[in-house]
Write a structure and sequence with these properties.
The protein is α/β, with parallel strands linked by helices. It folds into two domains: 16-177 and 321-336, Rossmann fold (3-Layer(aba) Sandwich), CATH 3.40.50.1400; 182-314, Rossmann fold (3-Layer(aba) Sandwich). It contains 13 helices and eight strands. The chain has helices at 32-43, 53-79, 86-106, 123-132, 149-163, 182-199, 214-218, 223-238, 263-269, 290-293, 295-306, 322-336, 344-347; strands spanning 16-25, 110-118, 135-142, 171-174, 204-210, 245-250, 277-281, 311-315. Strands 2-1-3-4 form a four-stranded parallel sheet, with helices on both faces. A four-stranded parallel sheet has the order 6-5-7-8, with helices on both faces. Residues 350-356 have low confidence and may be disordered. It binds the ligand C=CC1=C(C)c2cc3[nH]c(cc4nc(cc5[nH]c(cc1n2)c(C)c5CCC(=O)O)C(CCC(=O)O)=C4C)c(C)c3C=C and fe (ii) ion (2 copies). Residues 210, 251 line the site of one fe (ii) ion. Fe(2+) binds at residues 210, 291. It catalyses: heme b + 2 H(+) = protoporphyrin IX + Fe(2+); Fe-coproporphyrin III + 2 H(+) = coproporphyrin III + Fe(2+). Catalyzes the ferrous insertion into protoporphyrin IX. One of its GO terms (biological process) is heme biosynthetic process. GO terms for molecular function: ferrochelatase activity; metal ion binding.
Length: 356
């Protein structure tokens, strides 16, 4: 790797602390033309698809990139909003709200921004913009509560690739996971309670997480265990009995075995077991996106109802709910300790973070 360019920023200007939130990314438009480069970048990432490179190059360029863009574009078109892709809209709003929350505590010393691992705004461009605005210490928070190689690991790779081209590097902190953070667990529990206060209960609460190949778990990826931990902590906080909830994995891709049980098979089987009403929550997604709105809210709803289900509720992601922003602000503040003054307001609250 070669250094490119010259880092010519003013080292005399006051240093600021940057908080960068990231998510996966999304195509620029719901069209095959926009899907093709997006999917190419995403599916060429060796963290996402761990298959021998040469073989994968032929499969990706010869088959997948000829078929998938059209199919995915159709699905994206059903969730697209006037402001753009839901994932982008929610992530931008999360960054705005988190900026407000952190500026209330730290003032101008802090700068919050967001970037996407694939597509735009890219990690490279946002890092450059943050450094241009005086950021010298950087906290990166990928908004994946559970660590996985394809998501969190890959985000770190993108940072490292950018840094490898720079002469000067910031001080860096990186949040690897927050699957058991008390603020995050409390925000999930609150969203379930709020949903149930409005819509009533259901026979079963289904926790559906994005899947990954089972091979990654066998080779040490902690993702599966962290998903189960999140479910257990939320169930404990809500006082749920074991037969009142279940955990499963969605969004299978390709032919090999992925983490089980699969969400679609679970929802198809539940009515025959006497479960006629379900509520589904997707705690691994910090923002609603194609995989939640369409795959759960439409496709999987269809499977459940066709199999004899009577009522299907989808509990939205945490998005920019006040509980979520509070949890993210708390997570940021914990990771900023020593860089900025201790935020008395956040740490004087009861529960969860005593002693911090
Ligand atoms: C091919 C393998 C894939 C792995 C492994 C994978 C892991 C993974 N993904 C997320 C979060 C999201 N994935 C999203 C879309 C998406 N994911 C894959 C494939 C893998 N994901 C594809 C091909 C797509 C594109 C959509 C499609 O063509 O079907 C999204 C939504 C993006 C959006 O714009 O709405 C998210 C978010 C996690 C957490 C994860 C971890 C194991
Ligand atoms: Fe995915
Ligand atoms: Fe999907």
């Amino acid at each position: 790797m070669k250094y490119t360019g010259t880092d010519n920023f003013d080292h005399q200007q006051p240093a600021r602390v940057g908080v960068l939130i990231t998510n996966l990314g999304t195509p620029a438009a719901p069209t095959s033309k926009a899907l093709r480069p997006y999917l190419k970048q995403f599916l060429s990432d060796p963290r996402v698809v761990e298959v021998p490179r040469l073989l994968w190059w032929f499969i990706l360029n010869g088959i997948i990139l000829n078929l998938r863009p059209r199919r995915s574009a159709k699905a994206y078109a059903t969730v697209w909003t006037e402001q753009g892709s839901p994932l982008l809209v929610h992530t931008r709003e999360q960054a705005n709200q988190l900026a407000q929350a952190l500026e209330n505590i730290y003032g101008d010393d802090i700068l919050v921004d967001f970037a996407m691992r694939y597509g735009e705004p890219s990690i490279d461009s946002v890092l450059q913009s943050m450094f241009d605005r005086g950021v010298r210490k950087l906290l990166v928070m990928p908004l994946y509560p559970q660590y996985s190689g394809p998501t969190t690991g890959s985000t770190f790779d993108a940072l490292a690739a950018d840094f490898s081209r720079r002469r000067w590097l910031p001080q860096l902190r990186f949040v690897g996971h927050y699957c058991d953070h008390p603020g995050y667990i409390a925000a999930l529990a609150a969203s379930i309670q709020n949903y149930r206060a409005e819509h009533g209960g259901a026979d079963k609460l289904v926790f559906s997480y994005h899947g990954e190949p089972k091979r990654y778990l066998d080779q040490g990826d902690p993702y599966h265990c962290q998903c189960l931990k999140t479910t257990r902590l939320v169930a404990e906080l809500l006082g749920l009995e074991e037969d009142q909830y279940t955990t499963c994995f969605q969004s299978r891709f390709g032919r090999e075995e992925w983490l089980q049980p699969y969400t679609d098979e679970t929802l198809k089987a539940l009515p025959a077991e006497g479960v006629k009403s379900v509520q589904v929550i997707c705690p691994g997604f910090s923002a609603d996106c194609l995989e939640t709105i369409e795959e759960i809210g439409v496709e999987n709803r269809g499977y459940f109802m066709a199999a004899g289900g009577e009522s299907f509720g989808y509990i939205p992601c945490l998005n920019s709910s006040s509980e979520h922003i509070e949890a993210l602000a708390q997570l940021a503040a914990e990771n900023l300790r020593g860089w900025l003054e201790k935020p008395a307001r956040l740490f004087s609250q009861q529960g969860g973070n005593n002693g911090l």
